[in-house]
Amino acid sequence: MSPLIILIGSFLLLIALSVPIAFAIGLASIFTILEMGLSLTSVANQMFASINSFPLLAVPFFLLLGRLMNDGGITDRLLKFADSSVGHVRGGLGHINVMVSMMFASLSGSAAADTASVGAVLIPAMKKSGYPAPFAVALTAASSVLGGIIPPSILMVIYGAFGNVSVGALFLGGVLPGVLVGLMQMGYVYYIAKRENIKATGKFSFKQMGRTAIVAAPPMALPLVVLGGITTGVFTATEAASVAVLVGLILAVVFYRAIRFKQLPSILAESAISFSLPMFAVASAGIMGWLISYLGIAQDVANFILSVTDHRVGIMLMVMFFMLVIGTVLSPVTAVIIFLPIIQGICIAADINQIHMALVVILSLTLGLITPPYGICLLIATQIGEVSMPRAFMAVLPLVGLIMAVILALILLPSVFLFLPQMMFPKAF
């Protein structure tokens, strides 16, 4: 029997038996390795190789930073600043939801953390203010995916680490698409607020905005430290993450005094546990990614796509739709590691820039965070808002369409979206 059939067949069977994704990937890979007569030491070697990466150290630092944002009361300060900035506009709470997600994304890089922290405050408030519950849930989940797009993005760190692609270029490449998605979501919020006749509450005050801006300025400056340090070559993405955590600790413990020193050991321990779970999935996915490369599947897929079309736009559209489907059943991190050999094989065969393709892949996979059956952000939001998944999914579809429109624009207008990374990282192009 073909190793490819064993790999895919056993994986699908294990998924059907409700085996957790990380274990299903690892076991399917082991079955294939045994059938091929390879040594099981390959499993240990590839699992170790998958996580033995300096850039991956940025991931636990960003996860810890997200935890410090929540426990340190920094999220509340961002909420107050967003309220003073856009709370007076029609659909103010919805605008605050999107704006805080954009700021939170630039701090933690974690979509799920954004959904949980922002959703816990804003979903009940939006429901109380007259927003339809499914819309409040859908908006919170959809705005949270900005954590995978706006730097620093954990998904971009992992893509850069495994694909040997410039993380700094990916970070800068995510700025314009992320901001554009956020602005389009705010436009949709205004439309819904007008349709539901939700009036603006409160009045704009420069004094109040200035007061909240002063309090929120230090954490909002963190993304500038990260991006500025990386783009100027002062430090790597991992070093930037560690610097951001150090600043976050000073803010939470010394400046805001929201976290006591005696709380730090438990916060560090819980962050380590939170990091270990996705890293096991990364290690398991590394085995399957290696098998895909070893079996020559990447070249076969590249040849198939090129036999259908050799046009850059057509190839990228096929990759986009493939990633949209994959994202519904696999987490973005797992999908990147498994299919990266195929993606880069296509780039080489079709002479497509790696940064351009990476951004298309990352944006496409982030949609999996709000589409069933995976849809972790939508699932978290539905639990907070007490809305059924079918109702939430119907409400999130227009927001999915907005993100897809940005992906299409990214494919068709690369020079517009890649201007920043091309200017700062010309060697990546």
Describe the SSE topology.
Elements: H1 3-16, H2 21-35, H3 41-51, H4 58-71, H5 74-86, H6 92-108, H7 111-128, H8 133-144, H9 154-163, H10 167-195, H11 206-231, H12 237-255, H13 264-294, H14 297-308, H15 312-326, H16 332-350, H17 354-366, H18 376-385, H19 389-412, H20 414-417, H21 419-424
Can you describe what's shown?
It is a single chain. With 429 residues, the protein is mostly helical. It is 77% helix and 0% strand. The chain contains 21 helices and no strands. It has helices spanning 3-16, 21-35, 41-51, 58-71, 74-86, 92-108, 111-128, 133-144, 154-163, 167-195, 206-231, 237-255, 264-294, 297-308, 312-326, 332-350, 354-366, 376-385, 389-412, 414-417, 419-424. Helix 4 (58-71) packs antiparallel against helix 13 (264-294), helix 6 (92-108) runs antiparallel to helix 7 and helix 10 (167-195) runs parallel beside helix 17. The two termini are 42 Å apart.
